[in-house]
Amino acid sequence: MRPAGGGALRRTVILVVMAAALVGLMLASALTGQLGIGVADVLAAIGRGLGLAPADAAAAPADAVLWYVRFPRIIVAALVGAGLAVAGVTLQAIFGNPLAEPGLIGVSSGAAVGAACTVVLAPALPFAGAWLGGQWLTTLGAFAGGVGATAVVAAIARARGGRGDAAGIILVGVAVNAIGGGLVSLLTFIANPTARDQIVFWQMGTFAGGSWTAAAIIAAVTAVIAVAFIGLAGQLDLISLGETPARHLGVDVARLRRIVIVLSALLVAAGVAFSGIIVFVGLVVPHALRLLFGPGHRLLVPASLLGGALTTTIADVAARTLVPNADLPLGMITALVGGPLFFWLLGRDRAVRP
């Protein structure tokens, strides 16, 4: 499908507008909260934090709120959305299916199972807390669970012999999600109250626990994998045409699929470990951007980075402002908005293909 309107200039303008909108929304998010902070205060706090302006004792409370609460949350929200969208666009390419998405095919639930296992079992593991400090252990557990769930879906889809069998892949994803949900429920039942609260956090999804440690981990994972996917853009374009044409053109389909599954699972796992399950971002964002930019992954991957970050930043601002003095679950907001939006996208262009 050709991008609507076509033209490199038009697509460049859209990318610039998306980047500007993301910066504006991040600033708006920094202004949002129980403590009233103005634009000038935010800019001044950034200057002081970076050493570009002298310290101001009167502004210390506002600076503390911004640098220890709001800024980490804003960065984590943008990075998680970017990772989910990039994982979605690449999974759609290797499965040859525009309905493939980390949440629908079980990656998120598998990662949640892995993370929940570490929360419940970590106290019984010798030196686990001292060795990995909790967060790294959770990330590794989420990674293992995400890879396992995705590998199961990929193997069954391959065994069915139909790369474009949307119903088959979604049905397998439903089964994986059901099993994952059951395991998470079991772990919740046997967990102590503290661990139970952490598991519920993953199930609901929130950026409230964002920290600079989480931001650093997710940023490192997202940056490296996004660059790798941009390097694989040509092969992703070819495999989107079909496995047989891709093989004839020299693509090692099995190897490419393994690489993309592992890297996509790591992207999702990094987000799930710190923010919980957030659905529909990896499905809706690539669909919408494919309508604007066309099927070429060299442009779709960076566009998905921006689009995913923009989407979760909007959702996070909504979660903090829709109900006064409340922080709504992110998973609820993305599901309620993403589901109807996906129906609209399907109705607008039935010919969308990765």
UniProtKB/TrEMBL annotation:
Keyword Transmembrane helix in annotation: yes
Pfam families associated with the record: FecCD
Intracellular or extracellular location(s): Cell membrane
One Gene Ontology MF term: transmembrane transporter activity
Record bears the keyword Cell membrane: yes
InterPro entries, per database record: ABC_BtuC-like, ABC_transptr_permease_BtuC
Lipid bilayer topology: Multi-pass membrane protein
Transmembrane stretches, start-end: 12-31, 74-96, 103-124, 136-157, 169-191, 211-238, 259-285, 328-346
GO CC terms of this entry: plasma membrane
Example GO BP: siderophore-iron import into cell
SUPFAM superfamilies: ABC transporter involved in vitamin B12 uptake, BtuC
Keyword annotations from UniProtKB, A to Z: Cell membrane, Membrane, Transmembrane, Transmembrane helix, Transport
Family statement: Belongs to the binding-protein-dependent transport system permease family. FecCD subfamily.
Protein name: Iron ABC transporter permease
Taxonomic source organism: Corynebacterium sphenisci DSM 44792
